Amino acid sequence: MDETQPKPSDDDVGEAGAEAAADAKDDAAQDADAKTDAATDAAVKDAPAQDDAAADAKEDAAKDETAKDEERPARAPELPKTEISPVVPRRSAPGEVLITARDLTKYYRGFVAVRDVSFEVRRGEVVAFLGPNGAGKSTTMKILTGVIAPSRGTAEICGFSSLEQRIEVATKLGYLPENGPLYEGMTPEALLRFLGAARGLGAERLERRIAQLRDQLQLGSVMAKSIHKLSRGFRQRVGLAQALVHEPDVLILDEPTNGLDPNQIREVRRVIRTFGKDKAVLLSTHILQEVEAVCDRVVFINEGRIVFTGSVEELKDKGETLDGAFAAFTRPAKAGAHA
Questions:
Q1: Which tens digits make up the pLDDT trace of 56-115?
Q2: Residue 312 belongs to what H/E stretch?
Q3: Euclidean distance between CA atoms 24 and 255, whole angstroms
Q4: Strands (DSSP E) along the chain, which ranges?
């Protein structure tokens, strides 16, 4: 340093510091103003985008709310309050139709076996299907059970078509045809086990049913014998047992007491009456005393046509007795008479 150069005085130093501080303050103020201007410009530029985003969000929220309203089930209109009586449960819905024949007709070449046969059997009814030999009873029963198809008309068991819904019908129906076929090489016990398993009965339920039917139908002495060795009466009871093994809702019996002795007839009648309390039974028979003993109603067929439907008492009124009524309905038409 040049020692000849004069040193600045304290006043000069103070003034210089003040000027520097003032310049720094001005620079800071300018920087702050620049930042403020930049922030303002950015805010101005971003404002439209933010407004658009807010509008889009609001629109999306409105759409979501509309969608929720559409998904939300409509509120049912309020109905005036009324007093409702308590529902009393019924054990088995008595009175519903379980067997329906509607305009059943069957042709065999030029022969008309049945024509326009119509009737119903309801739950809790045992109905006798009466008529002379060849009147069409067995043909009608075969149509109802799905064994043969009608030429015209419909048959239903528990609301299922006997022609088109055979599996459903089989679960609801027990059928004993006249001279019902049995597997003669089997014992009654083996037959019931086989048919019960085929119908889907579990092991425990099947054991219970076999024991019940053995006692009800007095089959204990022949359960281990081959069926081909049994008398006609025992074979008939085995056939009835196979019809009942799965506890069906409907029982159709073609001459169920045929070949039975008086004690066996009485027991079979008791089984039919018990079954008919909350099921539907249709049975054909030539034993008019059986009609009085077990039946609630009669359907009478002659020459393929239904000629009477009504109670046993109403049938009696047609001929004073059941024998008289049977004779009246089966008497050949006089020459020149119109059917």
A1: 555 665 555 555 555 544 444 443 443 333 333 333 444 799 999 999 999 998 899 999
A2: helix 312-317
A3: 127
A4: 97-108, 111-122, 125-130, 152-157, 160-161, 173-176, 250-254, 280-284, 297-302, 305-311
Query: Which residues are paired to 157 by β-bridges?
Result: 99, 160
Q: Give me the residues paired with residue 122 across strands.
A: 97
Alpha helices in 222-308 (DSSP H): 232-244, 262-275, 288-294
Percent of the chain with pLDDT over 70: 70
pLDDT at 50: 53
Strand partners, 284: 129, 254
What gap in Å lies between CA 183 and CA 186, rounded to an integer? 6
Please list, in sequence order, all residues whose beta carbon lies within 8 angstroms of the beta carbon of residue 129, skipping any fewer than 6 positions away: 137, 140, 141, 282, 283, 284, 285, 299, 301
Q: Is 242 exposed, middle or buried (0-12, 13-18, 19+ CB in 10 A)?
A: buried
CA distances from 101 to 65, 74, 120, 191 (A): 57, 44, 6, 31
Q: Is the pLDDT of residue 318 over 70?
A: yes
Integer-rounded Cα radius of gyration of the chain = 47
Q: Residue 169 class from Cβ within 10 Å (0-12 exposed, 13-18 middle, 19+ buried)?
A: buried
Quote the pTM value: 0.68
Q: Position 242: which residue type?
A: Q
Residue 12 has pLDDT above 80, yes or no: no
pLDDT reading at 46 higher than 60: no
Token pair of 167, please? 């599996």
Query: What are 225-239's pLDDT values in tens digits?
Result: 999 999 888 898 899
Tell me the torsion sign for CA atoms 306, 310, 316, 317.
negative
**Cα separation, 136 vs 150, whole angstroms:** 12
Neighbours of 115 (CB within 10 A): 18
**212 within 8 A of 245, measured Cβ to Cβ:** no
